[in-house]
Amino acid sequence: MRNIPIAKPLIGDEEINAVVEVLKSGMLAHGKEVEAFEKEFADYLGAKHGIAVANGTAALDVALKALKIGPGDEVITTPFTFIASATSILFQGARPIFADIDPKTYNLDPNEVLEKITNKTKAILVVHLYGQPADIKSFQEIAEDYNLYLIEDCAQAHGAEFGGRKVGTFGHIAAFSFYPTKNMTTGEGGMVVTNDDELAKRAKLIRSHGQAEKYYHVELGYNLRMTNMAGALGRVQLRKLDEWNRTRNENAARLSEGIKKISGLVPPYVDPRVYHVFHQYVIRVEDDFPMGRDELMAKLRERGIGTAVHYPMPVHHQPLFQKLGYEKDCCPNAIEASKRVLSLPVHPAVSDEDIAYILETLKELAS
């Protein structure tokens, strides 16, 4: 039986050799490979500073700490995301405030955000979900009008663009993840990105024990450094990112061409202002499809097609947030999306034959 995984890290001889060279050098911890990766990644985005960290969650935490978000502050974000977007706010002693999503893009809706602003609001944390940039120009305007920080969660959006400009460069600070399922990987890893010299300086201190120079500690910090092995891997992956993103777009276009002809399935909407990098290819299963989303998922799995649900429960419905007293009724678009979305394989290892098989299987299940 055919086996098409939902995600597949692409690790070749070039990546393996780069990591082996680091192992041979004996310089395994944060060093020249990481510093080179930081510069190359920042240059790729058109940003001034890249600060590499241990993972994407650490990148969010460091970004928020660099902005001095703290107790009593509110940060508006989306409930339709991976939980780290919200828990990183809790770790500051601040309160996540959830605003609803645009039902077409699944990204945070600027009009909903406007309704949530109070005198306690300190920042907006915007997630570029599935690799599609949010309406970031609108969020820039809101942040400017209300004197708020703008934080970009780019964990799924490496190389994505809004109006020809790469995400991660619109806000005061941004966070990226290099988890193995992302469009590029360092195994585990993350990056804080900013054009602000002072924020970059603070992020570097927080990342490494608050250490301004060796054994001289000026504030409270962690050890969240990236290893040289991860840095070497990231440098090779970054060189391949644009080609891989083009392949994701080609695969997505072929999938959409077939899926739009199947009644009851809705292919992803792409905002004409953006370059979507399809970290996930997410369809919507409507009521007129012969079976529900979860049954469709099971049938596809039986036929060797990997699928996933991103995400089956909005963040404010999670037990953690229910214990914190969050209302279940808010954000109806996010609740509805969680019942209907289904991710299909779109990564660069998916072949034309795989796509034909996926479409053929969906047509068969629709009949």
List the helices and strands and how they pair.
Layout: H1 13-25, H2 32-45, E1 49-53, H3 56-66, E2 74-77, H4 84-90, E3 95-98, H5 110-116, E4 121-127, H6 136-146, E5 149-153, E6 161-162, E7 165-166, E8 173-177, E9 190-194, H7 197-207, E10 211-213, E11 216-217, H8 228-259, E12 265-266, E13 274-275, E14 281-285, H9 293-302, H10 319-323, H11 332-340, E15 341-344, H12 352-366
Parallel strand pairs: 2-3, 2-4, 4-5, 5-8
Antiparallel strand pairs: 1-9, 6-7, 6-13, 8-9, 10-11, 12-14, 14-15
Helix pairs in contact: 1-8, 2-8, 3-4, 3-7, 8-12
Q: Could you describe the 3D structure shown?
A:
The chain has 367 residues and is α/β, with parallel strands linked by helices. The chain has two domains: 13-236, 3-Layer(aba) Sandwich (Aspartate Aminotransferase, domain 2); 241-366, Aspartate Aminotransferase, domain 1 (Alpha-Beta Complex). It is built from twelve helices and 15 strands. It has helices at 13-25, 32-45, 56-66, 84-90, 110-116, 136-146, 197-207, 228-259, 293-302, 319-323, 332-340, 352-366; strands spanning 49-53, 74-77, 95-98, 121-127, 149-153, 161-162, 165-166, 173-177, 190-194, 211-213, 216-217, 265-266, 274-275, 281-285, 341-344. A seven-stranded mixed β-sheet has the order 1-9-8-5-4-2-3, sandwiched between helices. Strands 7-6-13 form a three-stranded antiparallel β-sheet, with no helix packed on it. It is globular. The two termini are 22 Å apart. 51% of the residues are buried. Keywords: Aminotransferase, Pyridoxal phosphate, Transferase. One of its GO terms (molecular function) is pyridoxal phosphate binding.
